[in-house]
Amino acid sequence: MIKRKITGVLFAAVLAMAIACNDDEGGAIHYIPDPVANTVELVTDKAAYNPGDAVTFTADKTYDNAFIRYMHLGTVLEEVPMTGTGWTWTPPTTDFQGYMAEISIRNADNSEEVVATVGIDVSSDWAKFPRYGFLSEYGQLSEDEMASVITNLNKYHINGIQFYDWMYRQHQPLAGTVANPAAVWNDIMNRDTYRSTVEGYITQAHGKNMKAMFYNLAYGVLSDYDPTAITPQMFIYKDAGHTTKDFHELGAPFISSIYLTDPANTGWQNYLAQKTNDVYSVYNFDGYHIDQLGERGNVYKYDGSSANLNNAYPSFISAMKAAKPDKDLVFNAVNQYGQQQMANSPLDFLYTEVWSPNEGFKDLTDILANNASYSNGTKNTVLAAYMNYNKANGQGIFNTPGVLLADAVIFAFGGSHLELGEHMLAKEYFPNNNLSMTAELKASLMEYYDFLVAYQNLLRDGGTFTEPTISTGDGKLNLGSWPPSMGKVAAVGKQVGSKQVVHLINFTNANSLNWRDTGGNQNIPADIKQAMVNLQIAGTPTKVWYASPDYNGGAPMAVAFTQNGNSINFKVPFLKYWGMIVVE
Question: N or C: which end of the chain has fewer CB within 10 A?
Answer without folding.
Answer: C
